[in-house]
Design brief:
- With 341 residues, the protein is an alpha/beta fold.
- It folds into 2 domains: 119 residues, Rossmann fold (3-Layer(aba) Sandwich), CATH 3.40.50.720; 192 residues, NAD(P)-binding Rossmann-like Domain (Rossmann fold).
- It has 12 helices and 12 strands.
- Strands 8-7-6-9-10-11-12 form a 7-stranded parallel beta sheet, sandwiched between helices. Strands 2-1-3-4-5 form a 5-stranded parallel beta sheet, sandwiched between helices.
- Helix 7 links the parallel strand 7 and strand 8.
- Helix 1 crosses helix 12, helix 2 packs parallel to helix 3 and helix 4 crosses helix 6.
- The chain starts with 6 loop residues before the first strand and ends in a 16-residue tail after the last helix.
Amino acid sequence: MADSRPIAAVFDTKSYDRDYLSRETGSASVDLRFHEFRLEAETAAAAEGASVVCVFVNDKATPAVLQQLAKYGVRHLALRCAGYNNVSLKAAEDAGIVVTRVPAYSPYAVAEHTIALLLAVNRKLYRAYNRVREFNFSIGGLVGFDLRGKTLGIVGTGRTGKLVAQMLKSFQMKVLAYDVHPDVEWAEKHDIKYADFLTLVQESDILSLHAPLTPETDHLINKATIAKMKRGVVIVNVSRGRLIHTKALIHGLKSGHIGGVALDVYEEEEGVFFEDLSGEVLQDDDLARLLTFPNVLITAHQAFLTHEALSEIARVTFENVNRILEGRPPLEGTVLKAPSS
């Protein structure tokens, strides 16, 4: 007799996605249908016959897409990530689709990658590596600075922001933090001070971004805020690309006002990050310009990419899939906005 289990259509998958998600198949009450392409209006038909649709950061769950999914009988949109600015939550509610996410797959993975980026851009490790590979053992031009005694500005004190602040506190840095919902008790415990955004920007030697993308944080780092920063400031962003206005960033780098930049995200990364474009001409002029600066280090949205994080993403995703199919509530804190019904 044929297996009549429900189907989960999984979009925008790479080999590591398929590997870790498939490991959960035994505990999941669905059959997985993997798609390498992203979910968008032109590809939504691939979800026909599925009860669950699983997406990642660059899939587009627009109102039109969600309406189409609802017609196919999809009742659960499972995000295998924390961010959800690519999902129309109101449209999902209207369509009767429950939206879940993985809010904390591994804040340690992202925090540790933040520290790695900061150390690498400050101590010019990527330039040193390239030199040595060519038997060039000179060290001219590789001067960095001690983190000890410098001021770190943390924008966003969720799980990851807090971990980065605590880790860099151990480097004997002074830490300032900004958040619209400050955790005063945590700050006092770790000798961290909250400040208003302008003060933080003006006093920080290093600025590390860990805020979600909202209308208020969109292009939070722009020409005006960069002008208020210390000359030589180092900016690290592992959160959302659109927190930074790229053209303003390039201007700050060209003028020498910005001393270094480390990015794991980019505001126009869709269609570029996660793809192999090594045999093509890069069409994004701003990204191409950024890559020409010797004091810019970019990784392609890999901060989450650890064994622990991928395992947790798969576990939480399919735990929620099972729960919803069985009529049970999803895991606490994972529902973004359930239908009113």
